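Input set for joint prediction.
Command: fold jointly, output tokens.
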Amino acid sequence: MSKLMPLSEAIRKYVHDGDLVYAAGFTHLIPFAAGHEIIRQHKRNLVLARATPDLIYDQMVAAGCVRKVIFSYMGNPGVGSLRVMRAEIEAGRLEWEEYSHFSMISRLQAGASGLPFMPMNPTAAGDLERVNPNYRQVIDPFSGSPVVVVPPLKPDVAIVHVQRCDAEGNAQIWGIIGEQKEAAFAAERVIVTAEEIVDESIIRSDPNRTLIPAFIVDAVCHVPYCAHPSYTQGYYDRDNEFYLSWDEISKSRQKVQEYLDEWVFGVPDRSAYWEKLGPEVHRRLRVGERLSVPVNFGSY
Amino acid sequence: MSKLMPLSEAIRKYVHDGDLVYAAGFTHLIPFAAGHEIIRQHKRNLVLARATPDLIYDQMVAAGCVRKVIFSYMGNPGVGSLRVMRAEIEAGRLEWEEYSHFSMISRLQAGASGLPFMPMNPTAAGDLERVNPNYRQVIDPFSGSPVVVVPPLKPDVAIVHVQRCDAEGNAQIWGIIGEQKEAAFAAERVIVTAEEIVDESIIRSDPNRTLIPAFIVDAVCHVPYCAHPSYTQGYYDRDNEFYLSWDEISKSRQKVQEYLDEWVFGVPDRSAYWEKLGPEVHRRLRVGERLSVPVNFGSY
Amino acid sequence: MADYTSAELLTINAARLLRDGDVVFVGVGLPNLACNLARRTHAPNLVMIYEAGVIGAQPTRLPLSIGDPTLVSGAISVCSMYDIFALYLQRGNIDVGFLGGAQIDRYGNINATVIGDYLHPKVRLPGSGGSMEIAAWANRCYIITPHQKRRFPEKVDFRTSAGFLGHRREREAARLRGGGPQAVVTDIGILEPDESGELILSALHPGRTIDEAKENTGWDLRVSASLRFTDPPTETELNILRNELDPGRIYLRGGE
Amino acid sequence: MADYTSAELLTINAARLLRDGDVVFVGVGLPNLACNLARRTHAPNLVMIYEAGVIGAQPTRLPLSIGDPTLVSGAISVCSMYDIFALYLQRGNIDVGFLGGAQIDRYGNINATVIGDYLHPKVRLPGSGGSMEIAAWANRCYIITPHQKRRFPEKVDFRTSAGFLGHRREREAARLRGGGPQAVVTDIGILEPDESGELILSALHPGRTIDEAKENTGWDLRVSASLRFTDPPTETELNILRNELDPGRIYLRGGE
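tokens >
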């Protein structure tokens, strides 16, 4: 049963004001197009969770969509700070809840596994555990020693960008696989955006690559270049220049507003956005071919 | 740095009397050749762990190598009982420690992750928890409800059969991936057997398929047909006829001994064993090609 | 009325319990046939999952084991054993699990571990495998079994997996994610739990009697006030089973 | 003696701390350059692991972020974020982690979270990322940082990751898997923990003085009885850095 629909429809149907949203991806495959559509639809009071908020959450915060962020590293990777989020937090206008990478991802793992908590070994970095009541302790019944535990994270909706999936939503990812699988299984609703919608036979040719099965997916959206300025391995490069330029843009709220007006509100969808980027950017982000050596599953 | 060596040398160097051995594989890729070599080398007092002991542990028990088994399903999959193990347990001559599949695999997951325990949701099947003191409870500090936990399983040595790896031990598996990765990371020592030793460039063409990195591997052995009568996806079929015939053989200890004399002690290594199976078996187990559609990692 | 074997009767009645869109944890043998029959009749969107970690298999032959390579080639997805139990079963993504065992008791608890004492067993059975978790966490469980007195004791020798324990209240108190056994399909009829969780006779297959059911049950089997007869296997069902699914009659021949 | 920048000095001294065969959790920037330098000099079997889940990368360009696609194409292995932290770091498979932060205190504890009060921060920093776990579980940790008084307070405002806490005994009591910070490489010299876990001056770079080190440290910096001078960067080291690793001088230009 095909779940294909435009991204705007998926966001309208499955992202509601006040939702806990997890837009997945560790540097790779960050679904910027979905974030922009959420901004265009003026969603409000969202709680945004991600290990690394990246620029997309900075933009959603700037657009006024967000009540609270849950994160473990609030930076512009390799560049510096996320200036909008940082300013909002320093000004007391944005709630936040903070983890280390492993405790953040352990929360997602617990959510995906249906577990009431995940244990972690002690880190002795007591200050984060002191300010965040979601860090608790249990006593290991085998050794008698204390163990740190964190509760499951169960997003209302996960948005996952993938290289290819079929119309039902069986989705394949390669390259950095971050926490896409865990986010999808942890969430109540799942929106999959894909660079390519392929025939089921392509998916079935390599079942080990299918990280997300269709039956947990609610919407499938064909959104080429969804991840820009993040990237899709094998499809286009990371736009490091934009990551650097955001550091400049985000120094001024007016420039941020101008950016949103031009690049989010000023375009109807991702394909217009990509066109607007122009041939020079397209050329800069193009990548050559480097194919995996096929494996034989055998006919049985 | 190449770790290539004959299987006999790997078993001699890395499997010691009294070791806790985990020969991995859920139906798929069971390293029979390694089990046979352990029998040939007269290892003693081993503790064998596997979710499904399969025929290979039945044979090792019959050969007198084993003090204890740790398992969650002691059957000949799809056929019936493992008659040798069952008779030894019924006669009080073999120690055992028993789990359900998920608690067995949770123990391995804890061992692989360096965790002191893994939690599981309650199953209310209290009898197994009563007879096995490795099932304990902790109180979930978030809900106040009891949670079942099991301790890590840390084999002295894991034996993992794979489709392809390089000479250092970077190993790729496809098809059913069971618990190979977890067994390798949980164990102190790792022996990898492979259908094919390939150039590092093949491995690097598809990093997502590499489940085991070389630096946790101690020995790499090139052992084509290592898994027979189990199978290697894409390389040869499962020998269901042998699984059925073992049900007959294992009704008689004399026939079991004759089997071991002929097929284990009677051959020097796996290549002789495979030759001895003969062209009709080879033909029966041959599989046609069904290749994965390659993916593009891109040149960056 | 068509002629059919006991195995065909069991399979067809099990298939009818499945709903379109169900995500099913499948075992080999009759459950596998029942799922494939349901897919070809009233439940085309049924998703078959094998505990070996295979989702959406398209086998071209009947698998002997749940880890057969024919389940993998052309499947939709393959994942690790930890993931299949954690992300799929424990997370609550499995609608239906099939269970079997040497003993099933009055409250649907199952023994697949030992006959007799655990430490000094008369018969050592294979053990839980995944059934401890399937029985606890699948939304609905179905049991397929021949109807024999020794298989239906008042109380199992060893509780490998949970039915309703001593009463439906007890299962609820244990906070198990799944709903427990919904039906036991036998060659005589179908047992279903009443409001207390006790298995009572809810249906008879054509030609079978209440007395037969009672005689072959180890406890005082009660009979549902709305006892019904199952519809006999249809030509369509039998044709699919015999001509498409098990033409070699590997599983369908037997009385079991 | 060759002329070199402060960044080159830091990178070369960090590289020298690495051993052949080390499995290193690498960050971008100077740690990445240090690892690649070590691989090309005394540690050809060094294994580079990125917290994005990449093992054995062969980048053909300098990555801006630790999730750059050039790290993935041609890598040995890629795994999930949960696995890289659980199977690699928590399991004890990581020999070396690199750390940085806004503040490093007398006992090697690091603050990368806030300057000032946590709830009403003067400066909100990016936060832990993986450093809480790296500091606890990597066998050895190294810190690369410019030597400035504000970066070396007596006590950090917020303990993002553990050094020796208040004393080496305290770290031992906390049963952390890893050995804690082994060295802080600055542009003045190298600090190493003594038997109590306190960071003391163990080496000076050529031309630098004890007074400079003391003046730029926020606590009363003690000096090792065996204080040594580091060897100046060699032509080989500088050539590899400048001509092979960072020809665009993206990271090596700066004083930091």
